[in-house]
Each structure stands twice: as structure tokens, then as C-alpha cells.
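user: can you give me the structure for this one chain? C-alpha cells are fine.
assistant: on it. calling the predictor now.
[tool input]
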Amino acid sequence: MLPWNRVLRPLAALLMAVAVAVVPAATAQAASAPSSGWNNYSCKPSAAHPRPVVLVHGTFGNSVDNWLALAPYLTSRGYCIYSLDYGQLPGVPLFNGLGPIDKSAAQLQVFVDKVLAATGAAKADLVGHSQGGMMPRYYLKFLGGAAKVNALVGIAPDNHGTTLNGLANLLPYFPGAESLLSAATPGLADQVAGSAFLTKLNAGGDTVPGVHYTVIATKYDEVVTPYSTQFLNGPDVHNVLLQNLCGLDLSEHVAIGIVDRIAYHEVANALDPAHASATTCASVFS
């Protein structure tokens, strides 16, 4: 059984009152995601929001479950939203993000091209949670993504890796995942601090010119530790610690991505900085 006490414990009472109300509504929208809401390939970006937004799930996540709250949050604000599955292993259903990360980045490359072709936009914005906030950096740096991406927003991304114990902390949130992982999981090995993949990714600098980077972290992250390793260095980087915006927000690694509307407000600010507004504890109601 999913240990909800671990998911809900870190959230302040104010946050949970809103999250409980939001998730059921989000689930209803997700049920029709292929034809309405998000992943609607007839959606055309507006003048106010001229770029489609691609959501990139985290390790053990998938294109629906990771975004039951954030996708409706953004579609209700007028964005064309798309999400993909990547990093699948043979014989392991539902739990994605486990394959070699360079191959996952190639899947993202194909998906972004598909979204740009459907929408007619010149560039997309990317929003990723956990591995999904780090993996796109390979696409930007090595697969030509910088020419097709305006901004990358990482929510609790493991930009400089984590430990195996940190990754193991994810397993209780995904019932059945541990028993399915009998095959090798290169996507996990690639995320361990000091791996060959991360050494290549971060060599020569964290960022590439022309892309706006935002990192949103929580000091209560128990998966990517210390949380400061999530932050990027570069000339066009905005690193955000959630607790500097709202001291009541005690979200950990999973909650910041799947229910935290304060983090989502910062995502919206990063996607539309010209109309950004201050993020506070009250942003949970926005």
C-alpha cells in the first residue's frame, strides 16, 4: 500500500486542504487527456502563451500519473500541454524512466519534434520532475534541443546525481515497483552521483546558451540529497528554494512534483516571466 503518511506528512495543513480538493478534479480531466485537456494535438498556442509545454515525468513515473495536478493547472491557464512516456524497460509496465538516460533523451527529441510539428510553434518549453528535470539537459546539450527549446523548468531535478539509497527512497511510493525490477535498470545507475553519464552531462558547464533554466527545490528532499546539488550554475539560471517562498511548505521529493501548487506557481512564473507574480503561501489558492 502506498505510504500516504510519507507523502502527506511533509505538507502543511493549508497545502493539504487545497491539494485534496484539486486532485480529484485533476483525475477527471486526465481521463480525457488524449482528446481534451492535455495531449490535445489540435491545440494551437495563443499569442499569450506561444509555446507548447512538454511535461517530462520522473523515475518510476509515467505520462499520466505524474501530472494529474500540474497538467490541468497549466491547461486552465491557456497552455497547450503534452506529456510523454520514456525510459521503458521490457516487461516492466507503468514504471518508466528506467532505461539508459541518453536513449530517453532521444525519445524526448522525437516527441518534441512531434509537438512542434502539430502546433506549428518554433520552440517548446519543458517542465520535468526529478529525472525528468535533469534528462532534458542531455537533449539540449548533445541532441540539438537548444535550438528547439526556450526554457527548461526542473522540479527537484537530480542535476548532479544522488545516491542509490536516495533512489531507493522512491520505491515505497510505487507499490509493486521493487518486485518488477529484476532486470538491470541503467536509468538508475546513470543517476548515481559520479556516474559516467553525469560526468559527461556536466562536463564543460551545466547549461547551454539560448535556454532559460529554472530549478525548484525543497530542503526536505529525501531522494536528491543534499538538495543544493539540484541547483545549476550558468548565466541564465534561476534557482529557487521553495521554503524561501513559503516557510509552511514542507513538501518532499514526490509531493513537490505531484500536488504542490506553490511550486506550480513558480512553474507558471518561469513559463511566463513577463507576467510573473510573487509566489507566497497564498499561491496555494491561485
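assistant: here you go. The longest helix spans residues 101-119. Confidence is low (pLDDT under 50) at residues 1-35.
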